[in-house]
Amino acid sequence: MVPVDTTDRIVPFARMLRRAVLRCCPLCGDRRAWFDGWFAQGESCVRCGLRRTRGVDGHELGSLTIALVVNVSLVIAAVGIAVALTVPDVPVLKLYVILASAAVVFPLATWPLTHTVWMAIDLRVRPLDPDEPGDPTADRLGA
Ligand SMILES: [Zn+2]
Predict the structure, then answer these.
(1) Residue 3 included in any domain
(2) Taking the alpha carbons of 81, 82, 83, 84 in that order, is the dihedral positive or negative?
(3) Which of 33, 55, 98, 140 lies 20 to 30 A from 43 at CA?
(4) Distance 98 CA to ligand 1 centre (A)
(5) How much distance in Å is there from the Cα of 124 to the middle of ligand 1?
């Protein structure tokens, strides 16, 4: 087997993470990535062709885990800040309603980001195979 030069398919992790936090494809940086809308996802990146699940069953468990950690952390931080700002007369019912709403809004707001961030981490841990679709230079080629 002839070794394939894949050095042009390596994107620095910091760049992939920055792109992912902005909801872009971590590999090519395309703003649309594999999303058809805020909640709808296609099968692969519209520009570079990177497959959303990378051919792995259960790939989305990683983004689910990130969503869980991020959103629980946000709610706990919000509870802590709210209690710290209102002590000693903590308006429990008001805080409950506001924070319960936040527990719904935070996951909706961060949902696509958890997918792109997980993809960046996955690409760092499991770089692209030579045969795997995905061309990080697609943006430079104007594809
Ligand atoms: Zn892409």
Answers:
(1) no
(2) positive
(3) 140
(4) 37
(5) 15
